[in-house]
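tool_log.txt
---
The assistant was asked to compare two proteins side by side. It first ran the structure predictor on the initial sequence, then on the second. Raw inputs and outputs are pasted verbatim so the downstream comparison step can read them without reformatting.
(1)
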Amino acid sequence: MTSPILVEKTKVFIILFLSLFILQCNEVDELIYGEEPETEQTPPANEGTEVAFVPGDVSGMLMWLDASDSDSLFQDSGCSTPAASNSDPIGCWLDKSGNNKNATQSETSRRPELVASAQNNLDAIYFAKTNQQTLDIVSANWQPNQNFTAFIVYFQDTDNGLGVIMSTYPTAAEDFMITSSSTGNRYKYYDRNNWRFSSYYSSGDWIFETHHRTGNSLTLYHNGVLDSQFQNLNTASAGPARLGSYINTSFSNLYKGHIAEIVWFADSLSESDRLKMEGYLAHKWGRAFQLDNTHPYKDNAPTTFVSAQ
C-alpha cells in the first residue's frame, strides 16, 4: 500500500515539473513568435517622390503669364468671358503668380488673338500689329528692379522689323524694353537710351530667352545657351508695363508674332533654378532639341522632390 505522504510528494513534484515545462514552452514561443521590444521607428531618409517641376517651385515669382493655360485667358478686360476657341480676342491674360499683374486691353479693336495649338499642341497669343494690338500690365508696384530673372517664349514674324515684346513706363529716358528684330535677326535689350545687342539668330522660329540681371550687369541666354553679357546698365524703371509695343501714345514699334509664356522673378535666380526653368520651358514648348548637349535637362524635363511627410 502506497504511503499517503509519498502520494502528496509525487503530486507536488508533478505540479512543479509541469509548471517548469509550461514556463519553458512560453519562453520558446516568445523566441519564435514573440514581438521584439518596441523601439522608436525612424522613417527612411529621402522618403518621398519626384514630381514634374513647375515655375511655382521657385521662390520670388513676380509674374507668370501662360497662354497654354485656358483658365487664364479671357475675351474681355474684366476677365469674365473665357477665351477658348481659335481667334478669340484676348482682353485679359491672368497672372498665375497671384500678384495680380494681369495683362488687359479695354479697347475691343486692339485685343490680340488666341491661336490654338500654336506650338507643341499648346495655345499662344498672336499680336497682328494692325489696330495697335497690345496688352497692358497696370498693376501697382510692377518693378523690373536691379535684380531679376525673366523667361520669355515667343515667335516673331519675319516681316516684323523691330518689335517691342515688353516695355515699361513712363518716358524714353527711363524705359526698359525687351525687343526683337527680324531685320538683321538680333535680339535687343533697351536700357535707358542704350541699345544692347545679342548675337545673330534665325528669325521666324520659336525662341525662349532668359534675361538674368544682377545689379548693373545682365546675362542673356538664347534657347538655354549663353549668348551675351552686358555691363554698366542703368537703373531700370519701375511702373506699369506693356506687351506688344513701345509705351507711348503712338504705339510705335509694334510687335508682330506670338507670345506664349512670360515668367518673371523679382530676384537673380541661382544657376540651379535658372537651368530648371529653361528645361521646363524647353520641354513644355517642344524645344528641348535647342538646348546645348551639356544642359542638365537636355534629355529629361526637371522634377521636384516632394517629401512623404
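(2)
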Amino acid sequence: MPDLRQQVKQLRLDRFATVIGLGGKEYRHAVESAFTGTNVELRFPFAGLPIGKAMQATKRAIQLRDPCGTIHEWFNQLRKHHFPFQSKTIPQNGIYILFQDGEAAHGTNRIVRVGTHTGDRQLRSRLRQHFVKENKDRSIFRKNIGRCLLNAKRDAFLECWNFDLTSRASREKHQHKVDFARQKEIEQQVTKYLQSHFSFVVFEVPDKIARLKLESRIISTVSLCDHCRPSPLWLGLSSPKQRIRESGLWLVNELYKTPLSNNDLASLQVLLKR
C-alpha cells in the first residue's frame, strides 16, 4: 500500500479532478486507500462485473490509444510546412501545430507549440509574425526564443529584450535604454533559428470559439502527457520562464487545464479529414 501511495505522489495523480480505476472490488479498496486525503474523485466502472468480464473490459480500456499519442500520430500525417512556405496552402482560419528538430515523443515528432488567432482570416498573418516579421513585441513566440538565446549566454541585453515597446507609454519609459542595433541583431538570430529548426502543420477551423477551445485542449493534453518531455538539448530549457522549462512547450498559457475528451477527438478527426 505505501508503494501505491508513493506512485500517486510521483506521478502527480492527485492533480486530476477524476481518476478512473480499471479493476475489480479488491483493487478498488487499495486505490481508495492510496488516494485518501486528496480531492480526487475516484470512479470504478468495472467494479461490479464478474472477474472474467472485468478483466476483459479492463484489457480493452488499457488498449485504447491515449489522446496525446493519437493526436501526435494524426498531426504527423498532415502535410508539413517549412520555411519558406506558400501562404496559399495555409487556410485563412485554423490552428497550427509546431514541431522542432531533435524533439520526439510517441515515436514521432514531438509537438512543441500549438497556436491559433483571434481575428478573422488571420492564420497566415500570424504565421508570418512568427517566422518572417522581425518584431518580438508582435509575437510572444519570437520573444521567448530570443529570451532563451540571450539567457543561455547570460547576455545582459535580456532585460531590454523583455521590454514591450508597443504602447506609447512604454516607449517613452524604456526606448532610451534600448540599443536598437543590438535588438535588430537578436531579431535576425531569432528569425534564422525559427526558419532553420521548426516545421508545422495546419488545419482549418472556421469558427473562432471552436478554434480557441480546441487550441486550449490540445495544449492541455500535451502538457499533461508524461511521455512528452523535452530532449536534454532543447533550447527551451534555457528559458527564464519556468512554465516553458517544465512543460517542454513554447507556451505559458492553457497548460494543465482540460484535455481533449473522446468527443473532442471525434470532432478533431472530422476536421483533419476535410
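---
observation on (2): Residues 67-272 form one domain. Strands lie at 18-20, 41-43, 94-105, 108-115, 198-204.
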